[in-house]
From TrEMBL:
<feature type="domain" description="PucR C-terminal helix-turn-helix">
    <location>
        <begin position="233"/>
        <end position="285"/>
    </location>
</feature>
<dbReference type="InterPro" id="IPR009057">
    <property type="entry name" value="Homeodomain-like_sf"/>
</dbReference>
<protein>
    <submittedName>
        <fullName>Fis family helix-turn-helix (HTH) domain-containing protein</fullName>
    </submittedName>
</protein>
<dbReference type="Pfam" id="PF13556">
    <property type="entry name" value="HTH_30"/>
</dbReference>
<dbReference type="InterPro" id="IPR051448">
    <property type="entry name" value="CdaR-like_regulators"/>
</dbReference>
<dbReference type="InterPro" id="IPR025736">
    <property type="entry name" value="PucR_C-HTH_dom"/>
</dbReference>
């Protein structure tokens, strides 16, 4: 049963990009979105049936038992399996990929990305790599090179979205579906790019969405910024990323500012020399620094 048919049956239901934590609604996974249905209209039998539909629609494939994996953290608002650290989600869209190669691909990814904590393949065309933070975490550009090599090995074509690292304490169901919407939006509006991230995708997306209502953007601000970094980003934006000019604005030695920039970039895995990254940071401080 597809989403349109369910919406015809439950006329008060509505679509969101992420599941709800509101006990008054039941969230049903429907392809790349969630249908929120008011609980008060559902019998116990209907709830069980709709939950079964939700599971079947995810077409879940994984090398791990989903009861103990990140599956429930992304789809059922459950806490993440780990109780410390930061993690990012790398979404991968596959074309021309042979399902028989799944195990070999999983092994290759775990070798190349040794801090991978889980691999979720929701269909033969879509998967998620969950990676723990490390200082050796690959950049967006490095990941593009990795997946170009994998494409050559497996005679496939992949496109991916590299999410930001988030604390284990965050709601990864919300984070995942907002990052997924950025990915889908990027795929629809940029048919040439192979790799997307928040900085390269958010501008077009938030033209039609309120950035202050985004859990993802609020989360990035709370995790990335303390007062010294807020001042640093404001100065860098004002001087168009020029480090020497920004240092003068801050009455700071250039080497001191360089140290702070390096520290920020290492923690956030951003590159402030790229205007997309710098603009994302500037938008965050303008939107949430109250």
């Amino acid at each position: 049963m597809n989403r349109q048919k369910l919406q015809e049956i439950y006329s008060d239901a509505f679509v969101h990009a992420f599941p709800t934590t509101d006990a008054n609604y039941l969230s049903i996974a429907m392809e790349h979105s969630f249908l929120w249905i008011p609980q008060k209209y559902l019998t116990k039998t209907e709830k069980k049936l709709l939950q079964a539909i939700s599971v079947s629609n995810t077409s879940y494939i994984s090398s791990l038992d989903k009861e103990y994996s990140w599956y429930n953290s992304l789809f059922s608002n459950k806490p993440v399996p780990e109780n410390k650290g930061r993690f990012r989600l790398i979404q991968v869209e596959f074309q021309n990929f042979e399902t028989n190669d799944l195990t070999a691909l999983q092994n290759e990814i775990r070798t190349i990305l040794p801090y991978t904590v889980d691999l979720l393949f929701l269909s033969k065309n879509y998967g998620i790599v969950i990676e723990a933070f490390s200082e050796e975490a690959l950049s967006v550009e490095e990941l593009e090179g990795v997946f170009l090599a994998l494409d050559s090995d497996f005679n496939s074509y992949t496109r991916l979205f590299v999410g930001s690292f988030h604390s284990f304490e965050k709601d990864f169901s919300q984070l995942f579906y907002e990052e997924e919407q950025l990915f889908l939006h990027g795929l629809n509006y940029n048919i040439k790019s192979k790799v997307f991230d928040t900085a390269s995708s958010f501008i077009l997306f938030f033209i039609s969405h309120d950035v202050t209502k985004s859990y993802l953007m609020q989360s990035l601000f709370s995790e990335w910024f303390e007062s010294e970094f807020i001042q640093m980003i404001a100065a860098l934006w004002k001087t168009q990323g020029n480090l020497s000019s920004a240092a003068k604005e801050l009455f700071m030695h250039r080497n001191t500012l360089q140290y702070k920039v390096d520290k920020f970039q290492q923690q956030t895995k951003t590159n402030l020399k790229k205007m997309d990254d710098l603009f994302l940071c500037y938008l965050l401080i303008r939107s949430f620094n109250k």
